Amino acid sequence: MAIYLDCNATTPVDPSVASVVMRFLEKDFGNAASPIHDYGVFALAAVEHARGQVAEVVKARRDEVIFTSGATESNNLAILGLAEEGIRRGRRHLITTAIEHKAVLEPFDEMARLGFEVQIIPVETDGRFDPQLLADALRPDTLLVSTMQVNNETGVLQPLTEVADIVSNHETWWHVDAAQGFGKEFEQLRHPRINLISVSGHKIYGPKGVGALIARKRDRQFPPLRPLMFGGGQEQGLRPGTLPVPLIAGLGEAAKLAVRNNNERTYKCRVFREQALATFSALGAQRNGAEDHTLPHVLNVSLPGINSDLAIKALKNVIAVSSTSACTSHTHTPSHVLAAMGLTPEKVEQSIRLSWCHMTPEVDWHEVETILRALRG
Amino acid sequence: MSDIFRELEEVTVEQYEHQDLPKWLADPVLMVARSPELYQGKEYLVEILAAQVREYDVYAEAGCCKWAYDHEDIKRTLRWLEE
Hints:
Chain A is an alpha/beta fold. Chain A has 14 helices and twelve strands. In chain A, the strands form three sheets. In chain A, strands 2-8-7-6-5-3-4 form a seven-stranded mixed β-sheet, sandwiched between helices. The relative contact order of chain A is 0.17. In chain B, helix 1 (about 5-20) runs antiparallel to helix 2 (about 25-35) and helix 1 runs parallel beside helix 3. Chain B has four helices and no strands. Chain B is globular and about 40 Å long. Chains A and B meet through helix 2 of A and helix 3 and helix 4 of B.
C-alpha cells in the first residue's frame, strides 16, 4: 500500500479514539436524551465529558460547544443561522476571503441570494489575506466576518490575531472555520473575540461525521443563531437530532489527545517535513504558501514540467497525495485557492498537496524523486 | 501512577480544601485516585470523574440549565467504577 499523505483530506483514527467509539457502539449504547436509566445517564455523561474536552482546546465554556455532523454543517449554521438577525437588524453586509472552503463560500452564495451583500477579500501571493483590507471593508452594517484559520490546500495560517484587534471595536460577529487548525494551532482560537468556531472530527484523528460549532457568549448571550433544522431541541435548540454518542465521545477523546500530545506530534511532523522539502527542492519545485506561516504537516508545491494528475497516478503505489482539496478534486475544477494566490493556470495544473501526521510511516523519498524525474523526461 | 489518577487526586484535594466538595464525597474519590491498580482499564471513567470533581458545584441543579456537576453525578460515576 502507498503511504498516505492526504491528512488534510482526512486523518486516520487514533487507536485510543477508536477504542472509545467502539465502547459506545457495542456496550454503552444508550440515548443521551433518555437519562431515565443508567444507559441514558452514562451516554449523557459521555457527551458532557466530550463537550468539556472540545471546549478545553480553545478555552471555551462547556456549554458553548454545539455538536454537529462536521465542519461543513458548523459553517452553514454559523453563516445561515445569522440571516434572520441580519434581516431583523438591517445588517446585510458580510465579509469573507477568497480562499475559504466551499463549505463557507456556498453558504455565502446563499446569503447573497437572500439579499445580503457579500464582500470577498483577496489574498496575497503567500496565501494570506491582508488584515488591513478587512479593516477597510468593515462597515457599520457588517453582520458577519468569516475567516478561516488554516487553509486546507496550502496549510497557511491566517492572520487571526490581527483580525481580533480590528474587530474588537466593532459589533460584527466573527466566525472562524477552524477545520484544519483546531487541535493543531492553539493560541489563535483561544482569543475571546472569536464568536464562532467550526470544528471537524476527522481532521484531528477522530471519526468522520461529527464536528462542533463553538459559539462563545458575548455579554453573557449566545450569538443570535437560528437553527437550520427543527425537531427535538437538542444542542440548545440549534441542532436537533439524536446525538451520535459514539462519534461525540470519539471527538472528545481526539480533542483531549490533541492538547496532550501536541508537542510530540508537531516535532514528528517537522522531521517529516524536512525530508519532503529536501526531495521537492531537488526537483526544483515551487512552494506555494508562506513558508514561515505554514503548519508543519502540509506542503503544497508546483512541479515544473509535470502535470499533477500524471504525477499523482505515477506515484500511486508509493505515496497517496492529492492535487487540491478533497472536496473539489472530484470535480476537476482548478484550485480557486491557488488561483487567488496569483498562480498561473500552468502552475496550478502542476500543483500537488502533501499532508501527513505523527502516525505517518517513513516514505521512500528516493523512489518518489526517481518517478517524478522520469515523468519530466 | 498514571497522569489521570494523579490529576484526580490533585483536583479532589483542591476542591476539598478550598472549595465546597464535602468530605463524604472527597474520601471515596481519593480512594480511587490512590488505588490505580484497582482501576486498570477504567481510565475513561476516571477521566469523567476528574472532570466532575473539577466542575463540582453544590448548586449545580439551580437555575434553568445544569452546567456543573453535583454530588449525584459523582456518586453515579463512583458506582460505575465499582461495577
